[in-house]
Task: structure prediction
Amino acid sequence: MSAPLDIDQLHTFVAIVDTGSFTKAADRVFKTQSAVSMQMRRLEERVGKQLFTKDGRGNRLTAEGEKLLNYARRIIRLNNEAIAAFDDNRLEGTIRIGTPDDYADRYMPEIIGRFAKTHPNVELYIVCEPSVSLGEKMARGELDIALVTHNPRQRVSDVVRTEPLCWVASANYPLKDDAPVPLAVGRRDCPWRQLASSALDADGREYQVLFTSWSSTVIAAAVLAGMAVSVLPESALRPGMKVLSAADGFPPLPPVQIGLMKRPGLSTSLMTAITDHISACLDNISPAALPDDLDGDVKSFARGQRGRASHAVTGW
Result:
């Protein structure tokens, strides 16, 4: 009878494929690089085929490696399901989560990925709406958890992340110095819009609102197309955007805080599991890299805002 495939070797094999290198895979599976290489040699001996081939300084899957990858993922998934089926402490049920679309785009992939792996029997029902709407849904008991822009004047939430709020424009389309600042912002009751308007008014700089939307995707598109300036949290910065500073005629803005709202009465075990995952994921997400062409004062300002938990402003 043929010896079965080693599940630990398959985990390492999949980690190499997912991370793109033996070195990164070693960190993921908590092994040394030499141990990872040894596991792959033994796996190749077991299947009798070469799984990787050299590609410059890296490695790529052979045709036989591609064939094994499909089986490896299925074996690992079935193994996890079998273990979960006999876990008397496994969590089950549904968690209704609300988040603005900009937070969903930046944070939810990590949160969902980690939570689904550790709690495969819990269904995540996710709603993307502005923080104001999410606060109202929480009050009506329509959501269990909401990741919102912290605003103690409107709703109660626990601060889980603080980061700079920045003026942004396209890095590829310079602004006209003699024209009013074209703005892409939220609707009239959006506090970030109100903050931007107030700051420009106080600075005596003319502006014109050209784009209004609750959608961060629409706002980002207007900015990247060189058609408008907006205000975004640092984690929402995208390649092709430029942070505007006092040197460009834009005053510094207070930092933004992200808060977590929780529905009273939610199962303690479910509440603890999801909130722990959210907090851990937000702690592990690195702030967006600031463009290299910014001067030192601007970078110092943005980095100096991180971790400050006072005078935050609310957004979408």
Notes: Confidence is low (pLDDT under 50) at residues 287-316. Residues 93-162+257-284 form a domain with the D-Maltodextrin-Binding Protein; domain 2 fold (CATH 3.40.190.10). The longest helix spans residues 63-85.
